[in-house]
Amino acid sequence: MSGRRPPFLLALVHTSAGLLATLSLAATLWTGLDERGVALAFGVLVTVGELTRWAGTHAREAAPLGAAGALAYALLGADAGQPTRHGALQVVAVVLAASLLGSVPHIARGRPTLDHLARRVLTVGFAAVCFQPLHHQGTFQDWGSAHALLLLALLALTALCDAVLAAALAHSRTGWPFGPLLRDELRALLGIGSAVCATGAVMALAVAVAGLWAVPVFSLPLLLTQLSFRRYAAVRATYRQTIASLARATEIAGYTPAGHARRVAALSLAVGRDLGLSGPELTVLEYAALMHDIGQLSLVDPVPAGATAGLPPAEQRRIALLGGAVVRQTGVSPQVAAVVERQADPWAEQPVAARIVRAVNAYEEKARDAGPGGPLKALEELRLAGAGQYAPEVVEALAGVLSRDCLTPVPAG
Length: 413
Hints:
By secondary structure, the protein is an all-alpha fold. It has helices spanning 8-31, 36-51, 64-74, 88-108, 114-136, 139-143, 147-174, 178-210, 214-247, 249-252, 260-274, 279-290, 313-329, 334-341, 352-369, 374-384, 392-404, and strands spanning 78-79, 82-83.
């Protein structure tokens, strides 16, 4: 599928990072390493941060300690009152070498690393190129008390640069719309992103006054935060697995075909991303799509093949309300229960997530039963069903997703 996704941004980011990394390493090897003790201290910090990096989580920054250490080195202007002499290229070279060293275990396990390293190199390079020349020219000393304001402005630009890079890489890898991805990255800056920026800046300022002893002191809180995020990610993964297991109850009981809930959830997420839903909204959508048929467990006589889209509206609404009641008893978010309850309402009265689940569920059922050419026939049925059945914008977003994924040759709507 990667061949159908936009490769230009991915190639541009990787090529830019590779050129900057090559230039930095060559220049540092040619001129030698300035202030080796400082470089070693921050290199060790970045390496430790990369070694403790985790995977398989929705967290935006997988290695906050490594990111903060790299940013602190890029913004470092003095060591215990003595001005530092290292330049922007040495910063990139040290951070790259430390990141590669810390990534060895992740590479050995087959975890994706190239995008992460490209982001790290370009973001740190941006911060260092902006800060180090100004520092060597004495610009920050000339600004006096406004030094902090200039540093804050630089941090904001660096964070924006990183958010754009992350959204561009995700867009290139997945083909999801760039705008919603960038919006989610910017929202994430208020969480772990702001902690990384603040820790990096404070660490650089502390080392300038107190020396390298400030590195372990100021890195400890972020390390504890990283461990907390890791536990949170594990809890969240377990929570999702529990919901997926509950969703499979209808399949095990023979009410719905095997894999139906999983397919509806995957396709609903793709449609939700196309419509610009945010991260939390996508989570609610995924959970509701997984559990959208759970109300059928309350039926005495199963619906043939679990196909509720062909039932009378009143029966669909009764099953949806039963499903919402079951979801509320499981302790899942009330937002998920509300989506499950309202999936059978007229689309104009539904929240966006319920509109998506309703249309995708109907498409999956119709495509499954239509035989050869089923996906195309099912999509046309949704388009011709009438204004009160399915939201037109959801149907067209579904058509776009199917067309991109080459599941069927979808014609223009």
